[in-house]
Amino acid sequence: MGNRVSDILSIRYPLLMGAITDKVRLAAAVSEAGGLGCIDGNVTPEQLRRDIREFRTISSRPFSANFPLKSTPARTLQERMEIIAEEHVPVVLSSAGSPAQWTNFLHDAGVLVAHVVPTVYHARKAVEAGVDVVVGEAYESGGFRGETDVTTMVLIPAIRRALPNVPLVAAGTISDRYGYVAARALGADGVQVGTRLIATHEAEFPEHYKKLILAADDTSTMSADGPLRPRISKPEFAERVLGENKRIQMGQGAALIDNILTVEEVFQEIFRGGAEHARRVAEELDLLNTVATTANPAG
């Protein structure tokens, strides 16, 4: 049986990169590992074109470009979207705004669209606009989610119930095998991983990012002020770890990360480890049902 997200995006594993950076190396490593790497679309047009071409010198696998729609001026966004079409980028990952304006343009150029949403309402609007994949970004995540506080445990099954046929990706706190299996059990076809990918050898982020992620516990983050409200490190936490107040975007899943891995090792933990964990859970459920049937035989 195929996977809806993997099949439509032509990737081996249903994992989208969420750790957006203007360095191409991490995106290429994610795509080479079998996921969908992502380059930063919110750069100058010249750099965007350079980054697309640099990616293709490292990897021939599918990749995406990220665009926060609401925070990008219309003229600038148009210029960048035209570059995406000219360079035949396989996928655009859009967020923080309506995808309706650009989805048809991108489809006409042969570009797929995955759009990030924080609620069922926004998921319906994205599907009406014709997007190919919906990414449900929950309260716990480090990304842009606006003024909503819907958790993964509610958001993903609610979108799945409302839109049973849409390819659905869960974003927020997926850092290991347990998060992946949980997201799939909630109804997602795949996951978007951000904070865990920052804590990799290939991620060219400033060193204090990785220090804060490795030191984080379950109370180390907060919602930022402003319309997009990404999750960030608390100032008192950064002061304690770094000796100064540095704020970085990171999801609550940072509390589950205590080592620096390669991207390939992250994939092995999530997918190979996920298969082992799913089998264990299934076996326990089968055993519980067997015991229940024995204790209460029909008739």
Succession of helices and strands: HEHEHEHEHEHEHEHEHHEEHH
Q: Residue ranges: pLDDT <50 for 5 or more in a row? A: none
Strand content: 5-15%
**What is the correct CATH architecture?**
Alpha-Beta Barrel
Structural summary, described in words:
By secondary structure, the protein is of the alpha/beta class. The protein has one domain: Aldolase class I (TIM Barrel), CATH 3.20.20. Helix content is 45%, strand content 14%. The chain is built from 12 helices and 10 strands. It has helices at 4-9, 24-32, 45-58, 74-86, 100-108, 120-128, 152-162, 177-186, 195-198, 207-215, 235-242, 263-295, and strands at residues 15-17, 37-40, 63-68, 91-95, 112-117, 133-137, 168-171, 190-193, 221-223, 231-233. The strands form 2 sheets. The protein has an 8-stranded parallel β-sheet. It has a two-stranded antiparallel ribbon with strand order 9-10. Strand 9 and strand 10 (231-233) form a beta hairpin. Helix 2 (24-32) runs parallel beside helix 3 (45-58). The longest helix is centred in the C-terminal third of the chain and has 33 residues, at 263-295. It is globular and about 70 Å long.
